[in-house]
């Protein structure tokens, strides 16, 4: 083992999620998508999720204003569309038209969900924690959508079918192989 000359963060893999927003301005509506990998679960009762966006980005401004956002989980097959969303900016392009991602209505929030994504979650902003370059937006999950075509017999997501897109240290990966059930080593009494 070598201690690197510079401290690096090799935490991997991270999921790639698509955060959706909607800005209403008089009669106009501007919808946007930002791919995020710095994201995580922070609470389960109620369910809460964090997304970290560098300060000043278009999506950062919108979430600050509207205090709500969608989180869509794409399959690895959408790598190209995801990358396009991550190299363009919502103040100058319509990323839905650019990628062909289709909008579906949310049930609670005022932001679009993404039809091609098997999982969509509707979030309302609970808190913001500021760091030097990034703001961590903590959202309460108000509703969870699962595409029936990607559900198993128990109604849970079938991650083999979904094959989520992942990010590791500058590269895209897919989910890989399922190994075992959680807590499979627990001894039964
Ligand atoms: C796979 C991937 C992961 C990314 N993760 C983050 C992230 O966690 N936080 C962030 O601020 N930007 C992240 N980005 C960069 C933004 O998606 C990018 O700056 C985007 O163009 C901003 O869109 P907007 O200007 O419409 O808000 C990521 C991009 C990609 C492709």
Written overview of the protein:
It contains 4 helices and 12 strands; from the N terminus they run E-E-E-E-E-H-E-H-H-E-E-E-E-H-E-E. The model has no long low-confidence stretch (mean pLDDT 97). The strands form 3 sheets. The chain has a 7-stranded antiparallel beta sheet. The protein starts with 13 loop residues before the first strand and ends in a 16-residue tail after the last strand. The protein is 13% helix and 40% strand. Strand 4 and strand 5 (47-54) form a beta hairpin. The longest helix is centred in the first third of the chain and has 9 residues, at 58-66. It has helices at residues 58-66, 79-85, 95-99, 159-162; strands spanning 14-15, 17-25, 28-36, 39-44, 47-54, 68-73, 103-104, 113-114, 119-130, 134-146, 166-168, 171-173. It is mainly β and 189 residues long. It has a single domain, classed as Pnp Oxidase, Chain A (Roll). It binds flavin mononucleotide (FMN). Flavin mononucleotide binds at residues 16, 32, 34-38, 52-54, 57-59, 83, 86-90, 167. Flavin mononucleotide (FMN) is lined by residues 16, 32, 34-38, 52-54, 57-59, 83, 86-90, 167.
Helix and strand arrangement:
Elements: E1 14-15, E2 17-25, E3 28-36, E4 39-44, E5 47-54, H1 58-66, E6 68-73, H2 79-85, H3 95-99, E7 103-104, E8 113-114, E9 119-130, E10 134-146, H4 159-162, E11 166-168, E12 171-173
Antiparallel strand pairs: 1-11, 2-3, 2-6, 4-5, 5-10, 6-9, 7-8, 9-10, 11-12
Bound molecules: flavin mononucleotide.
Helix content: 10-25%
CATH architecture: Roll
- Alpha-carbon distance between the two ends: 40 Å
The total tally of domains equals 1
Bound compounds, each kind once, are:
flavin mononucleotide
How much of the sequence lies in strands comes to: 35-45%
Structural category: mainly beta
CATH class: Mainly Beta
Q: What is Rg?
A: 17 Å
**Succession of helices and strands:** EEEEEHEHHEEEEHEE
Shape: globular
Number of strands: 12
Averaged pLDDT, please? 97
Strand order of the largest sheet: 3-2-6-9-10-5-4
What is the CATH superfamily label?
Electron Transport, Fmn-binding Protein, Chain A
CATH fold assignment: Pnp Oxidase, Chain A
Number of helices: 4
Give the low-confidence spans. none
Largest sheet: 7 strands, antiparallel
């Amino acid at each position: 083992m070598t201690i690197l000359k510079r401290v690096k963060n090799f935490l991997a893999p991270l999921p790639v999620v698509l955060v959706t927003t909607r800005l209403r301005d008089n009669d106009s509506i501007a919808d946007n998508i930002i791919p995020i990998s710095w994201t995580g679960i922070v609470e389960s009762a109620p369910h809460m999720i964090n997304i970290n966006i560098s300060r000043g980005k278009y999506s950062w401004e919108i979430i600050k204003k509207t205090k709500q956002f969608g989180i869509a989980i794409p399959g690895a097959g959408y790598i190209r569309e995801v990358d396009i969303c991550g190299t363009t900016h919502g103040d100058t392009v319509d990323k839905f038209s650019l990628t062909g991602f289709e909008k579906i209505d949310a049930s609670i929030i005022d932001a679009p969900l993404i039809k091609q994504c098997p999982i969509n979650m509707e979030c309302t902003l609970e808190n913001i924690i500021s760091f030097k370059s990034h703001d961590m937006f903590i959202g309460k999950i108000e509703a969870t959508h699962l595409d029936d075509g990607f559900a198993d017999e128990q109604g849970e997501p079938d991650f083999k079918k979904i094959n989520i897109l992942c990010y590791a240290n500058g590269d895209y990966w897919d989910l890989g192989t399922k190994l075992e059930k959680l807590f499979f080593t627990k001894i039964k009494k």
